[in-house]
Amino acid sequence: MAPQKIRLYNDDYIKFGFTFIQKDGIQMPQCVICHVVLSNDALRQSRLERHLTTAHPMLKEKPKEFFVAKKNSLNKMKLDRTGEFQQNNEKIIEASYHIAFMVAQQKKPHTLGETLIKPSILKTVEIVLGEESKRKVSQISLSDNTIKRRIDELALDIQNQLIYKLKNSKSLCFPRP
């Protein structure tokens, strides 16, 4: 079996809305509109043009300058090495804590997060909001270890709040014998 041909990015590919990222020394095409990263094999005019016409049909008549501007704004964004956004993980972590709290309230096993809740959420988001939203939501960690750790952290926080309130409360003054 012959080794697979490594394709190289051509500057003309920007007219189809594509730039590239380096991944393990190989150029991978990245759409400047939806930021999806395709395989190196897709680094050819016909495949890039097909992505533009199927995924972004309303943009296929846009001039090259439009895509160059998108590329420039993409370069200013914080992307990790896979071409995905380095998201501010606060919302993802917050969602994980909320789900851990609900699991604790129901006194259910910690594995419920990864065996039932996450698959249910992912399927719902995929159906209602689409694949891109599903990818974002899939970053929420609901493993049994994560749920246990979050529940322990929530319990400790509640305990610390209670101790603080008791120490600073004047209504719990007991008369001394």
UniProtKB/TrEMBL annotation:
It comes from the Eukaryota. This is Zinc finger BED domain-containing protein 5-like. It comes from Sipha flava (yellow sugarcane aphid). The lineage of its organism: Eukaryota, Metazoa, Ecdysozoa, Arthropoda, Hexapoda.
